[in-house]
Please model this.
Amino acid sequence: MLLKKLKPTMNDMNVSINPVSKNSSELDIVKAELEAYKSAFSAITEICPELKRGNLEARIVGWQDHGELSDTLSDLNYILDVTDAYVREAGASLGAAENGHFFRKCLERGMVGSFDIGAKVINAGCASMEESASLKAIEEAAQAEREKLVEGFNGTITEFVASLLSSANSLNGLSGQLTEYADETQTLSSNVAAASEQASMNVQTVAAATEEYTQSVQEIARQVEISHNQSTLAASEADTAKNSINDLQLASQSIGEVVKMINDIAGQTNLLALNATIEAARAGEAGKGFAVVASEVKSLATQTADATKSIDGEINEVQSKIGLSVDVVEKVTEIISELNTIAQTISSSTNEQLDATKEISQNVQEASIGTKEVSEHINKVSETASRTSESAGELSEASQNMEMIVKDLESQVETFINSLMNHKN
Amino acid sequence: MTEKNITPQNIESTFGDDEIIVSKTNLKGHITYVNDVFCRLAEMPEEKALGAPHSIIRHPDMPRTIFYFLWQQIEAKKEIFAYVKNMSMTGKYYWVFAHVTPTIDANGNTVGYHSSRRSALPAQKSAITDLYGKILEVERKHSNRKQGMDAGVAFVSDLLKQNGVSYDEFVWSVGN
Model:
């Protein structure tokens, strides 16, 4: 290429030198030409070793000092300039791209032909690298985000699984406790059932007792009634007795008066007898017989007086007894009256008792119904407790199942997280 | 060698977007190589350019702050890109997107600097003209050049910080 370029220059030189040759010898002209070429060629030769070693810095300095050959030397320099520039650009842009400084492109300006094509290829390559780097950066950011998410998820799920496990555990414990409580409830409800059975029996006993008591109270009422009737009767008898005694007293007073009259009569009789005696004495013997009769009469009168005296005594005695009888009867009446009052009190009491027993009876009946209800309820409680016990058993099984599932979940999550973490590598 | 008293002209020179301007300097910034595109734009023969300080094509509209960033990078043996407004020998200006790299020998020592420049797009030129105008304004508030540059550097650093980008990211984003 160099020679090709040189040839026309040589011809140009011949053309331009030709007029000069008119005044010089052909030999001088050829010598001068030869010197020019030698000089130019030596300038080229000078830089060749450096260029051969790959030192693209080498240039022909003084290229303008070679007359008509200068252009060629300049062109040669320019070829080196462009080659040098291309090599610098290629190296610098690829180096920058390697460091991620994609803004530093391979300059296409000033590049010609193959250099231009090469620069464009480098820029296309760098653009592709930039795209990959950007994608990689995005991917890395996404991966970092994923890792962050995975770590966050891992933390959360670990916590979640742990709390789930602890929940399952405490659920298991609770179901055990529930079973215990249900069993206790069943025992207690059995006890309550027995107690309520006992209570029911007691209530029935109380009911029977109350019935008996009612009958007794009614009997008492009846007896009190009878007693009241009797005492009323007694009171009336006492009244009768009192009247009789009064009559008796009046009669005894009448007797006393009669006796007094008799006593008066006896006294008069005695006086008469005395008079008769006196008269008989006066009559002497004739009167002797009479005297005897008079004496006899006097004796009778005395006897009558004595008899009345003893009657009087008796009557007094009777009257005193009657007085005592009156007192007694009055006392009896009083007592009967008291008895009546007592009977009335008893009667009202028994009435109250009857009311009370009626109430008791009612209450007992209610209690009976109550205990029956308690009995029924406690049966239901027992049934419920039994069902609770069953449920607690199922719960325990479920919670144990849950524990197993959670453990499985834990290991699966771990595997998943590990696979995610390993994936990034 | 520096041409003095060139009056900048508001005439823009352009070059093809398939062309590159190449120049090299030694560690002192003296030109050791230029290619023909350089010579054409700078309106300067190779002979004149060789040995001249690179500032020979500096345009007065360029903020010193940009050269601060440029030197900071290449002294750290790193490449740098910068939009640069250059001036030809006749005062015309031309915008370039410069890529400057240190030339390092087999022992790892910097032995010079290499610059490849591409043409800049209208949108890039417009955006960077605005920015450089602002930086220049900041710099010119100080009579002292050093203070002016420090203020400009602080201004650009703040701007980059506000936008959350590095200088490199910023320069590649200009005009986009």
Remarks:
- Helices of chain A lie at 2-17, 26-52, 70-98, 113-282, 286-424.
- The CA atoms of residues 273 and 293 of chain A lie 8 Å apart.
- Chain A is about 90% helix and 0% strand.
